[in-house]
Amino acid sequence: MGWARAEAGQDGEWLVRSVPGAQATKEYRCPGCDHEIRPGTPHVVVWPADETGSVADRRHWHRPCWEARARRRPSQRR
After folding, report:
1. Of 39, 50, 13, 51, whose CA–CA distance to 60 is shortest?
2. Contact yes or no for 65/73 (Cβ under 8 A)
3. Which residues lie closer than 8 Å to 25 by C-beta, 6 or more apart?
4. pTM for the full model?
5. CA-CA 20 to 30 A from 63: which of 25, 41, 47, 52?
6. Is 12 left (phi over 0), alpha (psi -120 to 50) or beta?
7. In this structure, is residue 37 part of a structural domain?
8. Tens of pLDDT, residue by residue, the chain (78 residues)
């Protein structure tokens, strides 16, 4: 998993992968702010570091939202 880095926080351990704008070709919704991540926008993909995580557990976040997650509650929208 050299393409993802491990991060630990109050909310657990996560694998985090940076997505450069040139590789961001789809639209996603950030769980931190509930706003769209438009194609071409650099962001991060995050999923639980434990072995039970699956593709369905991945979430796309704006980088500032991910870095501020300890200071805010995630959106309830899914």
Report:
1. 39
2. no
3. 39
4. 0.82
5. 52
6. left
7. yes
8. 348 899 998 889 999 999 999 999 999 999 999 999 999 999 999 999 986 667 788 999 999 999 999 886 655 554
Q: Is 55 helix (H, G, I), strand (E, B) or coil?
A: helix
For β-strands 43-48 and 28-29, DSSP reports them as unpaired
> Residue 78: inside a domain, yes or no?
no
Q: What total of structural domains would you count in the chain?
A: 1
Q: Which domain covers residue 36, as residue numbers? A: 5-71
Distance CA 2, CA 70 (A): 26
**Which DSSP state fits 75?**
P
Both structure tokens of 7: 């991060």
Which helix (H) or strand (E) covers residue 67, if one does? helix 63-67
Residue 18 counted as domain residue: yes
Neighbours of 30 (CB within 10 A): 22
Is the separation of the CB atoms in 13 and 50 below 8 Å?
yes
